[in-house]
Every structure is written in structure tokens, then in C-alpha cells.
Amino acid sequence: MPARLLLSARVGLALIGVGVAAVAGCSTADSTAKASDPGQSSKAAPLEKPLTEETLQTLVLQSADLPEARPGAISLQPRPDPADVPSFKPASDPDCQTVQDIRNATTAPAVVDQVINWSDNIWGGSVTLASYQDGEAARLFTTLKRAVGSCGAYRGDAWGGGYGSTMKAEKALVAGDEAVQFREHITMDIVAEDGKGTEVMETEALYIVVRTGSVIATYYSLDGGPAATAAFPTEPIIKQAGRLRAAQSR
């Protein structure tokens, strides 16, 4: 594997503490929704029925949903034992830490994580489905929207050390009951391949977060380089919102 690919893979591991992961692949679709799709909030009244982890596992994206993914390279990712995860310092901006906590589903009683290996890039993506009880999803989403609007530039810690990030909110697609969308431009110093000195690695992470009733779904994609433009196809997001709505209406 070329040195640059090795470096990119190590950066992905380093950024896990930021709530991102680098695995093979990327998306070329844009992040614009179609107003006529069935996952939108205008199609049905909001629901708040909690879903179990077992039910969430039946609703994850499949290869047929994501032709942009490498065949056979969409998988469920077990959550690590908290005892095996190092304790990182909180983000320098409390609002930015709030965004990280909600998108990472740190308080959800039922969570399913899915890793996506895109077919044409070394960077990858993921989906997190998190179900809550007693209206907690709606309350958290209100907090998330406020925090995304307030978070700007901040410093944080990850597996590979400290990093700097700048968050910028974007117009969200229309899906579920409500959605937010934002990008983070991340800069991290990575030890060089020869072990001497460091290299500055720049990445861009796209997050699309959608609430459908009791479930908050977080879609993430990463791209590398100063001119990176991370993307996640919107059609599977809208379809999945429809499936989550149907599951809560049973």
C-alpha cells in the first residue's frame, strides 16, 4: 500500500475520538433532497414509539440501498466497551462537545452503528441509528440544532492526539420529522511514515442528522485533503426515514 494510503488509514483511526472513522470509500452524490419522497415529515404525523436494538438492526441500510458502496463492504460495528476507550478531554467549546455527544448517541438506550466502505476512495462513512424513550429524541434534537448554530472553531482530543476543527451549518435535506446538516474541517498533526517529524493532515467530515419520531439517525462521510468535499447520497437517507416511521407505526 502506498505511503499516503497508509497515512490516511492511520489518520482515520486517530479521528475516531472525534466521532469519525476512515475506511475505504467515498460518495459522489450531493446532499439535496427531493420534496416528493416518503421519508418527509409532511407525509405523516410525528411518532415517538421507541425501537429496540433488535428492531433497529432490521432497518439498517443494505447494499441495494447504497450502490456507491463497495460490494460486501457495509457492516454493523459493535460499540466498544467503555472500559476500552480512553478518556478524552472535552472539546474546547461546550456547544461543540454537545454536538459530538448527540451525534455519537452517548445517552441512547438502543444504538446500532454501521460502517460504510465507499467504492472509489480510501475514506469512508457510517450510519448511527439511536432510539430514545419518552420524547427524549425530540428534546435532544432541539438541543442539537441550537448547538450546531453556536459551534464554530474548537480544539479537541482524539486517538492520535489534539486536533483543530471548524464547524459550519448547511441547509439540511427534508427527511423524517426534522434534520440538520453540517461540515467540519479538521486539521491534525500526524507522525510521519518514517517516524521523524509530523505531517499536517486535513480532512472534511459531513454530518446529516435526521430525527424520525423516537429515532435520531446520523449519517457521516469523510474526505481528505485541503480541497476535500465529503458527500453522502440522500436517497437512502430519505428511504430509511420512511422505514423508521413505518416501524414506529406498527
Q: What overall form do the CA principal axes indicate?
A: globular
Q: Can you count the helices?
A: 5
Helix content: 10-25%
Are there runs of 5+ residues with pLDDT below 50, and where?
A: 1-44
Largest sheet: 8 strands, antiparallel
Provide the residue-averaged pLDDT: 83
Spell out the blueprint of helices and strands:
Elements: H1 3-14, H2 53-57, E1 69-76, H3 94-103, E2 110-118, E3 125-131, H4 136-150, E4 153-158, E5 161-170, E6 178-191, E7 198-212, E8 215-224, H5 235-248
Antiparallel strand pairs: 1-2, 2-3, 3-8, 4-5, 5-6, 6-7, 7-8
Helix pairs in contact: 3-4
Salient structural properties:
disordered N terminus, alpha+beta, single chain
Task: Describe the protein in words.
The chain is an alpha+beta fold and 250 residues long. The protein has five helices and eight strands; from the N terminus they run ααβαββαβββββα. Strands 1-2-3-8-7-6-5-4 form an eight-stranded antiparallel beta sheet. A hairpin with a 6-residue loop joins β6 and β7 (198-212). The protein is globular, with a radius of gyration of 17 Å. It starts with a helix and ends with a helix.
